[in-house]
Design goal:
Distance between the termini: 34 Å
Strand content: 25-35%
CATH topology: Aminopeptidase
Structural class: alpha+beta
Oligomer: single chain
Bound molecules: coenzyme A
Shape: globular
Length: 169
């Protein structure tokens, strides 16, 4: 049976290898996802321990997801999160593990009072959770991510209304 729980420091080492393996088979992969987690996302200004989750089956790690603080220049009061990375063990894919992790993390973020979630990902996958292009809300993404892959989801009604602003991934 699959269980979702917050990650703990004891998970960090196994997660490094887990994330590396998962992204080896990803359509887009920088090869630096594990470093990004450790060097950037788990740093004090970004990390939210209550919004980083592992999915386990018995003692085995089968999935991982993180939501971390994301700065939005021009909308200072918008409590935005970045969803990254999302990873499911290759032999456990297409069984709904990724969707359950996404839905669980979004629900927790909503309950913790955050306004919105941004990510760089395939709209064919993330559309099912309600994500759509951030430029549709006047949000410009400052990175090499194509506009059709720079996505956002409001967790509160009208949370994304506001002046043009820049999201820095
Ligand atoms: C993307 C990933 C997390 C999906 O996990 P999963 O547990 O297989 O997801 P689910 O079972 O909930 O959903 C599977 C569905 O998503 C689709 N899907 C999976 N990855 C996709 C992708 N990159 N683009 C578009 N659709 C995708 C599958 O075709 C499947 O569709 P179907 O149900 O209509 O057949 C997993 O494939 C993975 O870890 N990939 C490598 C890492 C990665 O690319 N992460 C995403 C970074 S944004």
């Amino acid at each position: 049976m699959m269980v979702i729980r917050p990650e703990t420091p004891a998970d960090y080492m196994p997660l490094r290898r887990f994330i590396q393996n998962a992204f080896e088979t990803a359509p887009f992969c920088s090869g630096a996802e594990a470093e990004f987690v450790e060097g950037t996302l788990r740093q004090k200004e970004r990390y939210i321990a209550s919004l980083a989750f592992v999915a386990t089956e018995g003692t085995e790690l089968i999935g991982h997801i993180m939501l971390t603080h994301l700065a939005v220049q021009g909308r200072k009061n918008l409590k935005m999160l970045l969803l990254a990375p999302l990873a499911v063990r290759a032999d456990k894919r297409r069984q709904g593990v990724g969707s359950r992790l996404v839905r669980y993390a979004l629900q927790q973020a909503k309950e913790q009072g955050f306004d919105a979630v941004a990510l760089a990902g395939n709209p064919a996958y993330y559309g099912r959770f309600g994500f759509s292009r951030m430029d549709g809300f006047g949000l410009h993404c400052q990175s090499a991510v194509p506009a059709s892959y720079a996505l956002v989801l409001a967790l509160k009604e009208n949370a994304l209304n506001g002046p043009c602003a820049t999201v820095i991934f």
